[in-house]
């Protein structure tokens, strides 16, 4: 059988075939290298066979592609067959596959075992949709298929989430033909909508087949498989033809950047700002340390921090997210993120770790304190130097013991200066040039919860160059 070899040829010659066969190449899903890169598994059609016993019927898979997704969604699935509208899958061992019959068995093999072909439509579809991220992505697609007819599935390993498979027509109706636009980004636009039970939703319509597909997979494989109070909730999705849409809970207070940088919105008091800083730290610590895979967001900035009705922060927009297996400490990937929040290792094109999120978070902390873009022009310090770059002012103000001058003027002096100083010190640790000098997000949470004292941070070399004082130390 293609992709397999007899485990014990000697026993086989003696008509003892109990040892069976073994794969020539491990499946991508089960391989230790699966998270380091490579291709997804593919299927080899075996025609004119008698199907093996112990098949499991997947009633909700109503097309051949959905049937293949159902098999790819489980690492133990070894084959599938789709015939006359019925989907059957086999797990683990395949017993008594005979080359006599009129059925087609699609045997799951490692990609290198299946020759690529431009005419292999199913292989292209599987490659485009499943991609090469992790086994978790396959799992979420399987869960999506299971609930396609009954709309929801039960609790998962991370805590119960019901994800709805929407038809495109349903979302057209819910958004009144995408008439109320909430915003737009490089990957598409977001529209407000309402479900039949009056639940307010935000629908992200992804643009571009290739890039939209990539972001769709990234968002589903991250927000679709985890749950946290400070993570925006994925309600559902639409994967119909070339259309890719994601449906999230609606955040009535918009994104953090509106409240920090715009003058016509409600000013956040210091207590709320500190609550937001802590909430974002907690969810990043969770994504980095507590999930099955380390999820690196790669684009932490105020625009991607949403606020619910009680101003609880919800991290959103995982279109650039990178999943890193626990067996790996770093990953090489293309540059992604937003200028001004990029860690130095992005620029040097070295491998990246979760510390890129720590750096971006540090820059966000500085903007939470100041209430303005950290790179925008600021009023000069008392000696008139270092005007124009807020991180430099933070370093000098910590030395001078004058953190009050750093606080957003819109707060009219109403701020806990001990907390302000703590936040500024944490921020300066987070934006260190060397990733090994930055704290983990779990350590950041301990600092902000006052469970650990923040030691004296050195000024990053970049800031030293801007300040022109290489020996400057925050005391």
Automatic annotation (TrEMBL):
UniProt subcellular location: Membrane
Domain Protein kinase residue range list: 176-451
Q: Which GO terms describe its cellular component?
A: membrane
Family per record: Belongs to the protein kinase superfamily.
Its transmembrane ranges are 124-147
The protein in question is named Protein kinase domain-containing protein
Domain Apple, by residue range, is: 29-110
| Species for this entry | Triticum aestivum
- The residues that the entry says bind ATP are 204
Checking Pfam families in the record gives: PAN_2 (PF08276), Pkinase (PF00069)
The domain of life is Eukaryota
């Amino acid at each position: 059988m293609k992709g397999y070899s007899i485990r014990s040829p000697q026993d086989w010659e003696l008509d003892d075939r109990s040892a069976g066969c073994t794969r020539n190449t491990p499946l991508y899903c089960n391989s230790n290298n699966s998270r380091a890169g490579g291709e997804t598994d593919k299927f080899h059609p075996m025609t004119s066979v008698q199907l093996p016993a112990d098949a499991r019927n997947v009633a909700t898979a109503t097309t051949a592609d959905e049937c293949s997704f159902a098999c790819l969604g489980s690492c133990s699935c070894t084959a599938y067959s789709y015939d006359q509208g019925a989907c059957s899958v086999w797990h683990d061992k395949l017993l008594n596959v005979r080359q006599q019959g009129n059925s087609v068995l699609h045997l799951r093999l490692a990609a290198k075992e299946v020759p690529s072909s431009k005419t292999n439509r199913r292989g292209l579809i599987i490659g485009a949709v499943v991609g090469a991220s992790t086994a978790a992505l396959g799992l979420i697609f399987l869960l999506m298929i299971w609930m396609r007819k009954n709309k929801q599935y039960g609790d998962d390993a991370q805590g119960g989430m019901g994800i709805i498979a929407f038809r495109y027509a349903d979302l057209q109706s819910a958004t009144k033909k995408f008439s109320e636009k909430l915003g737009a980004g490089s990957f598409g636009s977001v529209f407000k909508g309402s479900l039949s039970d009056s639940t307010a939703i935000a629908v992200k319509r992804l643009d571009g087949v290739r890039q939209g597909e990539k972001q769709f997979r990234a968002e589903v494989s991250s927000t679709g498989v985890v749950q946290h109070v400070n993570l925006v909730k994925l309600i559902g999705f639409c994967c119909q033809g070339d259309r890719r849409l994601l449906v999230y809970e609606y955040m009535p207070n918009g994104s953090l950047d509106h409240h920090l940088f715009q003058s016509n919105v409600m000013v956040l008091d210091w207590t709320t700002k500190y609550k937001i800083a802590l909430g974002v730290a907690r969810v990043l610590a969770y994504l980095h340390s507590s999930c099955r895979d380390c999820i690196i967001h790669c684009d932490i900035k105020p625009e991607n921090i949403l606020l619910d009705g009680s101003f609880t922060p919800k991290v959103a927009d995982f279109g650039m997210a990178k999943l890193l297996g626990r067996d790996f400490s770093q990953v090489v990937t293309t540059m992604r993120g937003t200028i001004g929040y990029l860690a130095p290792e992005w620029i040097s094109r070295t491998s990246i770790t979760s510390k890129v999120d720590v750096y971006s978070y540090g820059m966000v902390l500085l903007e939470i304190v100041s209430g303005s873009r950290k790179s925008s022009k600021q009023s000069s310090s008392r000696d008139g130097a270092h005007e124009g770059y807020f991180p430099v002012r933070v370093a000098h103000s910590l030395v001078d013991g004058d953190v009050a001058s750093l606080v957003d003027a819109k707060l009219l002096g109403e701020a806990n200066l001990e907390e302000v100083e703590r936040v500024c010190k944490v921020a300066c640790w987070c934006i260190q040039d060397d990733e090994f000098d930055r704290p983990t997000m779990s350590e950041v949470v301990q600092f902000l919860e006052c469970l650990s004292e923040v030691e004296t941070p050195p000024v990053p070399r970049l800031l030293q160059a801007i300040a022109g004082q290489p020996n400057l130390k925050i005391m």
